[in-house]
Design a protein that fits this description.
Rossmann fold
């Protein structure tokens, strides 16, 4: 009987005890263990194994139930490591912020206090070992009293644990940035930043009872105010080579999983849908998507649908023309260079002062290669994310507008007059978003954006060589029996000259023989479309 597929399982003990399929990441434990007295910050996109790795660390190091937890690692790589002697030696504080988000600061603070109260309840046995003053401090937090010093609560708990076990403490804080992103969204970022700076900093900075600290999150920050004065912090992001193989699935790990579940014939398609991320020098697959594909065996978006994506969409709504041109280039697999410095504060990243850094560290883009010190070629990692950008572009630009859907269908059905009417309606409603211009490139980018929706059924080629020159847009059907299209653009100097310019565009397709490359690739039916623009007006001629 095949092992169960752990889609949605992030507790290491549950996964092992219930015989779920596990990709062995236990060498991560000994790598983390080398950092005595330090705090490690790992930033990775959501659903890339951060919580499972943190859970694994907890069960490995925790002095509580050490003998029982030792069985969880039987047969795994760490069992054969000299570091295995460290198993079960340390008291562990493990706290996850993944559910700490609210519309108001008061709501969020209440959730934090409840979380810490539950943590204190887990360690209620410590109370009897404390003197009267410390018992009072313990009780104020455990009973959620107003006088409780919640900003120092993790530091207090670490101190109590050190006194009880006479052993330094390991502190694990998972998804540290979730409440901060929520705070930014709902307008109480300053209050949240001040509180969490105290909560995290007090237990991690210059804490003599700390053995190791490990923090995970999504957004890369160096000077976020949260950890700005944490001198023992080592940040390891997707740009770093160290630890690059422990988050996400490697090529060999995916191949083994597909073979185990007898679907290894699908490797190429799995690669195009869910691979493409680069962490350090290592290419990785999205583990959430792989596990869900193994379960459902259908190629579709799994990772994208696990989030509201509100932050990304909000930022894209405010994007300027230059940003959309770059996104167009990314969607059509052209090279885009960006400077990624890592010096942005968390607030700057959230306010989209560094859009590309946010997209990169959130997993919507990835590094293709490094060019210079802080200069990178970035790209969309795979089909799953490309589908999100395509749909988001349409939704943000045109909402769920029926005219847009009709526009695409009328073009594909070769109903050019109806296509012109739909395009005219869209230009009148939406063209101001791109700024009216007498430059052909602006209209070219606009139409290219509209054609994004055809990706997957058609190859959309822009400014390619064919015949005796370069066409503007070529739409090539993947099914050779379907119709292809050549689009050529002109800008008129008046509304009266639109028809003349549209005829010129159409004649240029014929004279320059732009259709030759489509014919050479086996496309038998080709429509030539000459398009002329003047401000918000369009005229189309076809053949």
């Amino acid at each position: 009987m095949k092992k169960l597929i752990p889609d949605g399982i992030s507790d290491f003990k549950t996964l092992i005890e219930n015989n779920y399929y596990y990709v062995d990441k236990t060498p991560f434990i000994s790598e983390v263990g080398k950092n005595v007295g330090k705090t490690l910050l790992f930033t990775r996109p959501r659903r890339f194994g951060k919580t499972l790795n943190m859970s694994m660390l907890k069960y490995f190091f925790d002095v509580k139930d050490a003998e029982e937890n030792r069985k969880l690692f039987k047969g795994l790589a760490i069992e054969n490591s000299p570091y295995f002697k460290e198993q079960g030696k340390y008291p562990v504080i493990f706290i996850s912020m993944k559910d700490i988000k609210g519309i108001t600061w008061e709501e969020t603070l209440k959730k934090v206090k409840e979380l810490i109260k539950d943590l204190y309840s887990e360690f209620i046995f410590l109370r009897e070992n404390l003197d009267f003053i410390k018992q009072k401090d313990f009780d104020k937090i455990a009973l959620m009293e107003n006088e409780g010093n919640f900003e120092s609560s993790l530091k207090y708990l670490a101190t109590f644990l050190k006194e009880y076990y006479n052993q330094k403490v390991i502190v694990l804080i998972d998804e540290y940035d979730t409440p901060l992103v929520s705070a930014y969204r709902y307008g109480y970022y300053k209050e949240a930043k001040n509180f969490f700076s105290g909560l995290y900093g007090s237990v991690l900075k210059d804490n003599t009872v700390l053995q190791i600290g490990v923090i995970t999150g999504i957004i890369r920050v160096v000077r976020a105010g949260i950890f700005s004065d944490l001198n023992n912090l080592k940040e390891r992001s997707i740009l770093n080579k160290e630890y690059d193989e422990y988050f996400g699935f490697l090529e060999e790990e995916v191949r083994d999983a597909l073979k185990y579940y007898e679907i290894d014939s699908k490797l190429d398609e799995v690669h195009s849908w869910y691979n493409g991320y680069r962490f350090g020098d290592t290419k990785v697959y999205n583990p959430w998507s792989i596990l869900n594909f193994l379960s459902e065996r259908e190629f579709k978006s799994y990772w994208i649908d696990t989030s509201e994506n509100y932050l990304i969409k909000d930022i894209l709504k405010g994007a300027n023309k230059k940003t959309f041109e770059k996104l167009n280039s990314l969607l059509f697999e052209k090279e885009v260079k960006e400077e990624i410095t890592g010096k942005s504060t968390l607030q700057e990243v959230l306010e989209a002062h560094d859009l590309w850094e946010l997209l990169l560290f959130s997993g919507y883009l990835t590094i293709d290669r490094k060019i210079d010190k802080n200069l990178y070629i970035i790209k969309i990692p795979n089909n799953e994310v490309k589908e999100f950008f395509r749909d988001s572009f349409i939704e943000i630009s045109f909402g769920t507008n029926l005219t847009f859907k009709n526009l695409i269908e009328n073009l594909l059905n070769n109903e050019i007059k109806e296509f012109e009417q739909d395009l005219q309606e869209i230009l009148l409603k939406y063209m101001s978003f791109y700024d009216i211009s007498n430059i052909e490139k602006v209209y070219h980018s606009f139409i290219l954006g509209l054609m994004i929706h055809l990706e997957g059924r058609y190859h959309i080629n822009s400014n390619g060589e064919s015949g005796l020159g370069r066409y503007d847009i070529e739409i090539e059907p993947l099914n050779k029996n379907m119709r292809g299209f050549i689009l050529e653009f002109k800008v008129a100097d008046s509304e009266e000259n639109l028809e003349k310019k549209a005829e010129e565009a159409l004649e240029q397709i014929k004279d320059k023989k732009y259709y030759i490359s489509l014919q050479d690739r086996g496309i038998k039916e080709i429509t030539f479309v000459g398009m002329a623009f003047y401000k918000k007006f369009v005229k189309i001629k076809s053949f």
